[in-house]
Design brief:
65% of the residues lie in helices and 4% in strands. The protein is mostly helical and 487 residues long. The radius of gyration is 25 Å and the shape is elongated. 44% of the residues are buried. It has 20 helices and four strands. The protein has helices spanning 2-24, 34-40, 47-52, 56-67, 76-97, 106-116, 126-130, 135-153, 157-168, 174-189, 196-225, 242-258, 268-286, 292-312, 321-324, 326-341, 344-397, 435-443, 454-461, 471-474; strands at residues 403-408, 448-450, 475-478, 481-486. Strand 1 (403-408), helix 18 (435-443) and strand 2 form a beta-alpha-beta unit.
Length: 487
């Protein structure tokens, strides 16, 4: 019996890992963003920064690795492989949590697995993998959170609290992930019927997640009060103002309209949700269980409120893809709910829609990965070309360039025009953010970074707005200093 159980787990793990590699296998190549290079050349491997962020588990692991002479940036491919292995484990745990609602028919299970795994197989999830120095820790945090939810389902609350505590001290947003899983599990557990017991369990489960998040924030404040850290990276702004509501509205529309600016403006995510609700409504009407619909609607929009909860309590609302990707967790859980409720005559349609939706995600995820390496390549090529000019200058003049000042022209976006699929830190260009570190990585030579000089800017760069790379105008070397203007 145990052999069969382990065999089933191994098969599910293999399928989950294969799906991750089909979507994101290209990220096994060594890639980077600005944060990656910052970590690569940080004197203390960003350990103090992690503590100030309340990410104590990461700080502990990085401290241990640093003592062993290891950083996650030493071999990005190896740590990215670990990332996929850990996320595959998390996918298996999520599948286990919702296994009571797994269809019996094999062809229906295809759509079901597309739904339950959608959380890590969507375009916005790409941003987590952009932080190649951190992605393995993101994976660990979400695995801990998923196992914690599994313990909640088993009513092993002590284990749940310990796992949630470890997860929140790895990455705070894992608690939102956990709260959404709990909300949908309870909804399904009570057969989508709204009653007092279900409401109480929902409240207790969500409070457990959010409460640990609050404790994590308070721990950061205490560290600052006692002088253990110089500053706290997390700030809270409880007020609801016009800025927050405007950004919230735009963000919500963008999610449903184009998946946070990744899809065409065809409202594909909204269409998927509408189809799921139509299938649920049709089945409930036919089965005369219309009373189930309000509970599902409450859980859906309550989960949407959860993904915005952390951004809303910040001083300014900021909702990057590494948070927004849980929008697809909500969609996936809604699809699981549809499988639990749908009648036989609509199961084929439901499966077809879920598979097609995942294929759309795969198509655009492939575009993102391809564009990521275009962005990285342009960064490296431009940095190397600049360095060749420095070497040429040194050979011609005999002066050794030891300093670098970075400027920007009138419009210097964080993405290259050649990169079509980008949003926030998905496919951001490194040039102009950590230019000195980029040159260091590409050439192996470190320049002292100095502040831009007003007179140099006025004379050479003021009023300029290039839309192409041109070192004849964008690089000025004077004595021992390279003045580089980023377009």
């Amino acid at each position: 019996m145990k052999i069969e159980k382990y065999k089933e787990i191994a098969i599910k793990f293999g399928i989950s890992l294969s799906m991750l590699l089909i979507f994101w296998g290209g990220m096994l190549r060594k890639s980077f963003n600005a944060d990656t290079l910052g970590h690569m050349f940080s004197r203390d491997a960003d350990i103090a920064w992690r503590i100030a962020d309340g990410r104590y588990v990461i700080a502990l692991v990085d401290t241990t690795l640093l003592k062993l002479g290891i950083r996650t940036t030493d071999n990005l491919s190896v740590f990215m492989l670990f990332t996929f292995l850990i996320f595959a484990m998390a996918m298996v745990v999520v599948q286990k949590i919702f296994v009571p609602w797994q269809p019996e028919e094999q062809w229906e299970r295809i759509g079901y697995f597309c739904s339950v795994n959608l959380v890590f197989l969507n375009t916005l999830f790409a941003e987590i993998l952009m932080f190649s120095e951190m992605s393995v820790y993101f994976a660990l945090g979400y695995l801990l959170a998923a196992v914690g939810v599994d313990k909640f389902v088993q009513k092993k609350y002590t284990s749940m609290i310990l796992l949630f505590a470890a997860a929140v001290c790895t990455y705070q947003f894992t608690m939102i992930f956990a709260a959404i899983l709990i909300a949908f599990h309870i909804c399904l557990k009570y057969r989508e019927e709204l009653n007092f017991k279900a409401v109480i369990e929902e409240i207790v489960g969500i409070i457990a997640c959010m409460g640990l998040g609050i404790l994590n924030y308070l721990s950061i404040r205490l560290l600052k009060i006692f002088g253990i850290i110089d500053h706290a990276n997390k700030s809270v702004g409880w007020e609801i103002n016009t800025q927050k509501m405007t950004v919230l509205k735009k963000s919500l529309i963008s999610l449903f309209k184009n998946g946070h600016e990744i899809f065409p403006n065809l409202w594909i995510p909204l269409l998927f949700v509408l189809i799921l609700f139509l299938i649920i409504t049709y089945s409930c009407v036919k089965d005369r269980t219309v009373k189930k619909i309000p509970f599902i609607v409450i859980v859906f929009w309550g989960s949407m409120a959860l993904i915005y909860s952390l951004p809303m309590i910040q001083s300014e609302l900021y909702f990057p893809p590494r948070m927004a990707f849980c929008f697809y967790l909500i969609q996936g859980m809604l699809a699981v709910t549809a499988y639990a409720l749908s009648r036989k005559e609509v199961r084929r349609l439901l499966t077809f829609v879920c598979v097609c939706y995942l294929m759309v995600q795969l198509l655009f995820s492939d575009f993102i990965v391809t564009n990521h390496f275009v962005s990285n390549t342009l960064d490296e090529v431009y940095a190397n070309m600049m360095y060749q000019e420095v070497l040429k200058y040194e050979e011609e003049t005999g002066n050794v360039v030891t300093k670098m000042a970075i400027y920007k022209d009138d419009y210097a976006p964080d993405h290259y025009e050649e990169v079509s699929f980008r949003t926030d830190q998905i496919n951001e260009k490194v040039l102009g953010i950590v230019s000195k570190s980029l040159v260091w990585k590409v050439t192996g030579r470190e320049f002292d970074k100095i502040d831009p000089l007003d007179d140099i800017y006025e004379q050479y760069f003021k009023g300029k707005d290039w839309d192409y790379f041109d070192l004849s105008e964008q690089l000025v070397i004077i004595d021992d200093t390279a003045h580089w203007c980023i377009f």
